[in-house]
Amino acid sequence: MGSYRLTVNGREHHVDVPEGTSLLEVLRNDIGDKSPKFGCGLVQCGACFVLIDGHPTPACDTPVEYVRGEVTTLAGLGRPDAMHPVQSAFLELQAGQCGYCIAGIIMSAAALLRDNPRPTRDDVSEALQRNLCRCGTHLRFVDAVLAAAGSASHSSTEPTPQAGSPT
Ligand code: FES
Ligand code: FES
Fold first, then answer.
1. Nearest atom of ligand 2 to the alpha carbon of 96
2. In sequence order, which ranges of 49-137 are alpha helices (DSSP H)?
3. Does an H or E element contain 30, and which?
């Protein structure tokens, strides 16, 4: 058992958990922040991504004792009355489908826009490469990130669904 101090979304937390406990487990089970999701647990899907000092990091594979720096989760990125531009764009464009992957996708997108406020479509696609979406809505995510960046080119290349076709 170890005692660890973490700063999450600007607040300091002390947790007593066994060494090797993942940051994801600590966030969800000890701190009560359910915004990062458990997907694969194997650094394959990105659903658990949080920012550590601004860098997208798989919380499922980060033992709590290795966390150095400030942790930001989706819950700390914005508030309903003061959303991060990526959150607003995802909402406005209804970019998600089931929504399970969204926490990780938005964290990767927020990190990209911090470093590159005017990304190209290719920049966005590359930044979201580590995040999987089983609903297949990556193109809508790219549009939403470009919209958040205020890019002129955010029209979708996804075919418009025909009436009666499955979505
Ligand atoms: S749950 Fe962490 S990468 Fe899939
Ligand atoms: S919106 Fe369903 S997994 Fe991405």
1. 1
2. 74-77, 85-92, 102-115, 121-127
3. none
0.85 surpassed by pTM: yes
How far apart (Å, rounded) are the C-alpha atoms in residues 55 and 35?
17
In CATH terms, the fold of domain 85-149 is DNA polymerase; domain 1 (1.10.150)
Ligand 2 centroid–CA 20 distance in Å is 29
Express each pLDDT in 137-153 by its tens digit: 999 999 999 999 995 44
> Under DSSP, is residue 151 helix (H, G, I), strand (E, B) or coil?
coil
Any atom of ligand 1 within 6 Å of the Cβ of 46: yes
Domain boundaries of the chain, sorted by first residue: 2-77, 85-149
The mean-pLDDT minimum among 40-49, 124-133, 157-166 falls in 157-166
How far apart are the CA of 52 and the centre of ligand 2, in A?
23
CATH 3.10.20.30 fits 2-77, yes or no: yes
